[in-house]
Design goal:
- The protein folds into 2 domains: about 55 residues, Double Stranded RNA Binding Domain (2-Layer Sandwich); about 100 residues, Arc Repressor Mutant, subunit A, CATH 1.10.10.
- It is about 30% helix and about 10% strand.
- It is built from 7 helices and 6 strands.
- A hairpin with a 4-residue loop joins strand 2 and strand 3.
- Helix 3 packs across helix 4.
Length: about 200
């Protein structure tokens, strides 16, 4: 996972159960994934080229993920970041489907026992959410903490994966209401969010 800015950047937007997603990258590598359903969707720069062809594998694997048939992504990725960020993003890919990990534990695994905050910042800068599963990192008390796509998407992704923390954090009524919508809808259905 290393950056390379000398190539043409392509982009393609797709529908998903968590809203529109914009994929960006080079012919051979995915570099970014943006959530487009929020109030400020990403607008690709004019020098980026719209082309679905470089993203066929990513689109197919995302569809498999959302139907529950894919648990890990097998894509060539080239996110750009600092050496520390890249190490955190590599470690995120080791968190298994349906499992969660606290920021502090992830920091300890990386050899930075007191680095939970730094890990959290790197996690929040992840340019490839879902594929590099930053949604699987939670607070030490099991709480859902910030997520670039919104906590309702983090809840939906963890519910899709059957993560235990979703059961622990929500009442039965809330769990029943956290379900993914079919592609083309703005956001997954969730119980009202009061202060997360």
């Amino acid at each position: 996972m290393q950056g390379n800015t000398s190539r043409t950047i392509f982009w393609h937007e797709i529908d998903s159960p968590v809203g529109r997603l914009l994929l960006a990258g080079h012919r051979v590598a995915l570099t970014r994934l943006y959530f487009q359903a929020g109030p400020h969707p990403f607008v690709p720069p004019r020098d980026w080229r719209a082309d679905p062809a470089p993203f066929e594998r990513a689109v197919a694997q995302l569809a498999e993920y959302f139907t529950g048939t894919r648990r890990a992504f097998r894509l060539h990725l080239e996110p750009e970041g600092t050496p520390f960020q890249l190490s955190v993003w590599r470690a995120l890919r080791e968190i298994r489907y349906g499992e969660t990990l606290a920021y502090g534990e992830l920091a300890r695994r990386l050899g930075h026992a007191n680095g939970a905050r730094a890990v959290g910042l790197a996690n929040g800068s992840n340019p490839l959410p879902i594929i590099v599963p930053c949604h699987r990192v939670i607070g030490a008390d099991g709480s859902l903490t910030g997520f670039g796509g919104g906590l309702y998407i983090k809840r939906a992704l963890l519910a899709l994966e059957g993560a235990a923390c979703v059961s622990d954090l929500f009442s039965a009524q809330e769990r029943a209401s956290v379900r993914l919508r079919s592609p083309g809808t703005a956001r997954p259905e969730v119980a009202p969010d009061f202060g997360d």
